[in-house]
Amino acid sequence: MAEQDLAGTPADKRGHAEPGSTARAIAVIGAGWAGCAAAVELARAGYKVTLLEAARTLGGRARRVDTDRAHLDNGQHIMLGAYSESLRLMALTGVDRDKTLLTLPLQMRYPANTNGMDFVAPSLPLPAPLHLAVALVKAKGLLKEDKLSLARFSSAARWMGWQLNTDCSVSELLERFGQTERLIRLMWRPLCLAALNTPPERASAQIFLNVLRDSLGAKRRRASDMLLPRADLSALFPQAAAAYVEAHGGAVRSGAKVQALRLIENRLWQLDISGSAVGGTWSTYFSGVVLATGASQAATLLHDIPEQDTTTVCDQLTAFEPEAITTVYLQYDRAVQLDLPFYALRDEPFDHHYGQFVFDRGQLDATQAGLLAVIISASGTVAAQPQELLAEAVAVQLAVDFQRPELGRPEWFKVITEKRATYACTPGLLRPGNATGLPGLALAGDYTAGDYPATLEAAVRSGVAAAKLLQRGTVQ
């Protein structure tokens, strides 16, 4: 590997790069969705971008995992039609939306005979929010009082402009608007867990309203569509982003961990990099840096910058409480298929029913026929039990809910828990902005200040915002 391909300036034989012409050289540390978004935006603007990732696989906390059984994802995601920035950058980098995403109307559908509900927006091109009103009228499994309760909530939220004077928990919000116990159990709780990965009693009502505003309450009909990835999460955007950066004169290096940052003469950033991608330890220089690692890693790097006060932002970065997401993959005979691509499940932990949603991967990717993925959000306590017991409990739950005994006997299973998948999105949570207070250094991640919780769209929007700060030279 030529040294000049790794960083902003050529390296000498001792593994140190001399400060040279770095006016357009930018380092992006971390190739998760935020880092990839920042890298694409900067490359598009004509900067020479070096994208550095400590792991071997791109995607951060939404990536492909190569297991002994199959190529899987570290979590099943649902995107929304409202994810405008993610869809824009995917198109920019050549990702074919129709081939990589299955588009479904907004829905909350439970297996028959589980005392659930069947709510699905009509496929007819009705204008928003009329399509949701039709869905509510036709919904099965909800009593008249449940439907009236939901209609009142929607009307009140629109009247309020989806804004609260003071944030509170989602549970408090639902109680304030008189939501029925059944509607909370079948709709609001699973939506809150899916969107915020935080139980309603601890989740931010304002952030929840922001998500509902841009999906249920959106003026654009397709904003409420659900988009299910057909491709693995690394191929869905990060790999395309990396190819785009390289095609625009940049470099992408996995297996390259940034050990330290130093600000030189208040105008250049020196990076100490180690790992297999660099064959040792190297120091090199850039005019700007986007720090797009996880919150705890970002805090460590910022804290150790010599002669710089980063106390405030580090305090915010270390205050996040991590929330886990567990995915239980169950492989059956290839002929096994569900009637729909995905279902909501009634999670009742006291009865060892932990699954909240199940996805038929075979309907998304033909090479994964017979593979079901069951999602457990905010799974910290559940994931602590032995994997064999958890997988068995989930398989039994599927067999009971679908009344199909064969689902209780998978050929093999794989449990993947992302322990720091997101942070607890609590009321009034202070999240750092993209600006760090240091020249030429911007922060990017789904944990930065914004309207959304820790979602793919939040990460992408943060990366775009960080890139714009560097372009404007306004990161202080």
Give the CATH H-level superfamily of the largest domain. FAD/NAD(P)-binding domain
Strand content: 15-25%
Q: What is the overall pLDDT average? A: 92
Any idea of the CATH topology of the largest domain?
FAD/NAD(P)-binding domain
The quaternary structure here is: single chain
The CATH architecture of the largest domain comes to: 3-Layer(bba) Sandwich
Given the helix and strand composition, which structural class is it?
Answer: alpha+beta
**CATH C-level name of the largest domain:** Alpha Beta
Total helical elements? 15
Largest sheet descriptor:
5 strands, parallel
C-alpha geometry: globular
Distance between the termini: 34 Å
Q: What report would you give on this structure?
A:
The chain has 15 helices and 20 strands. The chain has helices spanning 3-6, 33-44, 84-92, 97-100, 130-138, 144-159, 170-176, 181-196, 205-213, 233-236, 238-247, 295-303, 311-318, 387-401, 456-472, and strands spanning 25-29, 48-53, 64-66, 71-73, 79-80, 101-104, 107-109, 118-120, 226-229, 251-254, 257-264, 268-275, 280-286, 288-291, 322-331, 342-344, 357-360, 371-377, 412-423, 441-443. It has a five-stranded parallel beta sheet with strand order 10-2-1-14-20, with helices on one face. The chain has a five-stranded antiparallel beta sheet with strand order 16-17-18-15-19. The protein has a three-stranded antiparallel beta sheet with strand order 5-9-6. Helix 2 (33-44) links the parallel strand 1 and strand 2 (48-53). The longest helix has 17 residues, at 456-472.
